[in-house]
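Late entry, fe (ii) ion complex.
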Amino acid sequence: MKTVPRSRSFATRRPTTRRPAKRTIDIDANRRLLNNYRYVEHEAMLHLAGWLPRAATFELKCEMGRSLWEYSQHVNSLYLRLREIQSPAFQKPGDQALVTLMAEVLHAPDEFAFASGLYRVVIPSLISSLENHETATFPNSDQPSVHVIAHALLDLRAQLTRAEPILAAAEKAGKFTPAARAWERYLWQLLAACGGVSGLDRRRPAPSGTPSCRVNFVAPREAARDERFPNRLGAVGVRPTEEQYAEHTFDEFERYSTEMLAAETVALVLFAVRGMPWEFEYDTARHLHDEVRHCLMGYEWMRAHDVDPFKSPQFLHIYKWRCQFPPLMQYCMLTMGNEVHAFPYRHRRVKAHEASGDKLSEQFVRYDIADETQHVRFGKRWLPELIKHLGEKRSFEQYTTEVLGVWEREYRTGKFPITVE
Ligand SMILES: [Fe+2]
Ligand SMILES: [Fe+2]
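Prediction complete; structure with ligand written out below:
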């Protein structure tokens, strides 16, 4: 029998000695690392909720709201991935040093110490862990993780690009106290003790104790504003009628510029209520960030009309007034009081702006209506759950009716009685 010589093409189909690049992250390490990233961003998100009302610097406050919302996006993407490879999807990391680091981040002595701990210590370490993970895992087998990581990196790098000039400006203005410097050093030590967010770097000994600059964090009952806001407790006063189009429109967007107060109340609710399903925190993060954007929408409108928004009254007593009530009641007053009742007015404003050919105002209000529709939906979805979770005995209907009675008497009348100091 004649032997058929092997063709060249056959020879090239034989397995070669080439091996895939060595992958240092196997599936078990992958699960542990993704869990670390989720934990770090989830904790950062809740800490930001606590700090947002307390941060006075306007640009930092806005960045906190945006970062918080971006973390919620990443936590959600990581949650969707983690639930495919571990159960339950949300797990406390086994590494106590990482848990300690993230717990300590909250107890910063002031807003710049908190921000530098987050944006100069924790997030850069998270970024370098993600960068390593992106290339050290199996690119095809673990592609869903790579996708999450690549998108998170985009946000996190942009976040540092926005946050760093705010911190640098504060340093230049002499606002970084020795306590803030000591705090940043302490967090570096805690980070080194856990070998970075990934735990893969060389570990150093943990600091022997907590520094004297540490301040045990307490949720703020008053909202802070920086020195550019001279009018913090403005009286609500008489508003121009809707028939006075130009005056009323100015008033309308000046009110938008004060919606930081709504963001601050939602932040307090998010910080205070624990143990609810993840979807509640996810929706609440969006609600919070929307209110920051509504505030910025007011700023954008006022600046487009050559008006300085920092001179507008801030009505900070409204936050203080709401803080007298439990978080559940604050959330109920905001969603079922303020937000439910705003729609007829907002729709009238769209018509008025259309009639006057004011395209910018019309667009802004229509986007606001879209967001506020979601906020009411969040309230209707989560209030019954919150009522059960927090042990409130009244039904949703009865509870809401009674809370709205207080809202009518104290908010709508503009009295805002402060009875608890
Ligand atoms: Fe709003
Ligand atoms: Fe809202």
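The domain at 245-412 is CATH 1.20.1260 (Ferritin). Will revisit in the morning.
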